[in-house]
Write a structure and sequence with these properties.
This protein has one domain: P-loop containing nucleotide triphosphate hydrolases (Rossmann fold, 3-Layer(aba) Sandwich). Helices cover 33% and strands 27% of the residues. It has ten helices and ten strands. It has a ten-stranded mixed sheet, sandwiched between helices.
């Protein structure tokens, strides 16, 4: 197998250095090196079970919540090891927000969904201004401004996902992680989320996991292709095959496995 990495410039925000992830004694992801540039969209693609979401969850330490999970190697955010003993995982998750595969608004009003983080963090910011700004950033304000007291669960699936993006934005993160954010949405809602990503990268660094290669080619600046193989005992582990600018990955990949995957020969 071949590993490929891009040498970063000073614009690197997240740096993955020889990272492996285990769940108990089971290897899930092996020996990953890559740099995530700031204010760009980086896509993780590859077949199921290749470690895309596993790596994504390392960036905001969501794997800490899984018993037996451990991360080897180093993941740095602005040069600071995210797994240092003096790093607060809650603070990491404030700076590195996450949007999940299935929209998961709280069973609260639209307003309270967006204001939730600021309230529990005892923010001194004007909540009305925060809610409006966040909903505008998520391209949802015009659709909900007259029904902010309505339940977030009353919105359509696409609107719920944009509400979840607004909720993440309200925490004022620098990075937004998106784990297959459009897989449960219809094509029109998917395109709205994709358009939103193009706008959001002007302010945020976005890392997206997607099985949709057309989506990756449309929205991302950088693409990492992961694959999986069987280890002893039959368990499969993921590894990084190739990482490059998106145009290169889809039009002139360096590895045959990448070519086979993006051309639809397997996956």
């Amino acid at each position: 197998m071949t590993y490929s990495t891009i040498t970063s410039s000073t614009d690197t925000l997240l740096q993955v250095n020889n990272v492996s992830v285990y769940y108990g004694s089971v290897l899930a992801l092996r020996d990953v090196f890559l740099d995530i540039p700031k204010q760009q969209v980086t896509a993780f693609i590859g077949p199921s079970g290749c470690g895309k979401s596993t790596l994504l969850r390392c960036f905001n330490r969501m794997n800490d919540l899984i018993p037996g999970a451990r991360v080897e190697g180093k993941i740095s955010y602005r040069g600071k090891d995210l797994y240092d003993s003096d790093v607060d995982a809650v603070e990491v998750r404030r700076r590195v927000g996450m949007v999940f595969q299935k929209p998961n608004p709280f069973p609260k009003s639209i307003y309270d969904n967006v204001a939730f983080g600021a309230r529990i963090g005892n923010s001194k910011e004007n909540l009305d201004e925060l809610v409006e700004r966040s909903l505008r950033s998520a391209a949802l304000w015009d659709e909900v401004k007259d029904k902010l007291k309505a339940s977030g669960l009353s919105l359509s699936g696409g609107q719920q996902q944009r509400l979840c993006i607004a909720r993440a934005i309200a925490m004022q993160p620098e990075v937004i992680l998106m784990d297959e954010p459009c897989s449960a949405l219809d094509p029109i809602s998917t395109l709205r989320i994709e358009d939103l990503m193009h706008k959001l990268k002007q302010q945020y660094t976005i890392v997206i996991v997607t099985h949709n290669m057309q989506q990756a080619s449309r929205v991302s600046d950088m693409t990492a292709f992961f694959n999986a193989e069987a280890a002893e005992g039959g368990n499969r582990f993921g590894y990084l095959v190739e990482y490059d600018k998106t145009g290169a990955i889809f039009n002139s990949p360096q590895q045959q496995a990448t070519q086979d995957y993006v051309s639809g020969r397997f996956g």
